[in-house]
């Protein structure tokens, strides 16, 4: 098993060795493809949701799960003090080669004693929580990284539409699943597969309840056309 499928793919692209995209297989029994060039998109080709998030960024920024670094690179060029963070060695090396000044190889939960004005989590950035029952501990940690008037900008999607609807308007959720937005992914690239990765898609109402329970305000700042949304979280009373 190769744990850094994404990193290998983006580093290959950065070094001119691109001829294959990333395949994904999910517990929703759907096979999909991540086009590697898309991870290197420039601002003008980014979705409106991402453009909105980047416009809301302020101060000292950490781009959590930065991937190939497209968001960090844009913010750096705009003059922001931005740190790109990822737990993928290949992604971190790609960011360095692309000219991003501050890059950290780490899991966000291992970052300590730092304070930021903006914590940016795009491309379903909240997905790294994995399981809904881990969100309280995750928010507690993120709050420790926020300046008093800091903000968390994150996007996700409500994937209830992917489940079959019954005659009463309810949905058929597989047995044993605590929350319908909990998905497991496997990525494949050049014949190598990753270990299963737990990934969370969270509907806005559930996110808002979790935020409030953790003394965070939660504002819906953008809704996309495909059940996706952008939210801004801030420390309550700040």
Automatic annotation (TrEMBL):
Keyword Methyltransferase: yes
Residue span, Methyltransferase domain: 61-150
Key words, A-Z: Methyltransferase, Transferase
Pfam families associated with the record: Methyltransf_25 (PF13649)
Key word Nucleus present: no
Transmembrane segments: none
A GO term for molecular function: 2-polyprenyl-6-hydroxyphenol methylase activity
One of the GO BP terms on file: methylation
EC annotation from Swiss-Prot or TrEMBL: 2.1.1.222, 2.1.1.64
Classification via InterPro entries: Methyltransf_25 (IPR041698), SAM-dependent_MTases_sf (IPR029063)
Listed name of the protein: Class I SAM-dependent methyltransferase
């Amino acid at each position: 098993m190769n744990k850094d499928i994404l990193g290998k793919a983006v580093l290959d692209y950065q070094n001119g060795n691109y001829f294959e995209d990333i395949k994904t297989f999910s517990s929703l029994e759907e096979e999909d493809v991540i086009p590697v060039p898309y991870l290197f998109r420039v601002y003008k080709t980014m979705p409106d949701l991402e453009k909105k998030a980047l416009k809301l960024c302020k101060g000292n920024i950490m781009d959590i799960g930065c991937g190939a670094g497209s968001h960090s690179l844009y913010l750096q060029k705009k003059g922001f003090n931005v740190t790109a963070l990822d737990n993928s060695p290949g992604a971190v090396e790609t960011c360095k080669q692309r000219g991003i000044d501050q890059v950290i190889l780490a899991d966000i939960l291992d970052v300590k004693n730092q304070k930021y004005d903006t914590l940016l989590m795009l491309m379903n950035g909240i997905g790294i929580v994995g399981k809904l029952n881990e969100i309280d501990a995750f928010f507690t940690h993120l709050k420790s990284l926020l300046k008093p008037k800091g903000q968390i900008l994150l996007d996700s999607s409500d994937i209830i539409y992917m489940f079959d609807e019954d005659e009463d308007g309810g949905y058929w959720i597989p047995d044993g699943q605590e929350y319908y937005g909990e998905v497991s992914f496997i990525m494949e690239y050049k014949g190598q597969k990753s270990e299963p990765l737990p990934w969370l898609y969270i509907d806005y109402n559930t996110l808002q309840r979790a935020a409030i329970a953790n003394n965070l305000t939660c504002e819906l700042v953008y809704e996309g056309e495909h059940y996706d949304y952008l939210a801004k979280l801030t420390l309550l009373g700040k």
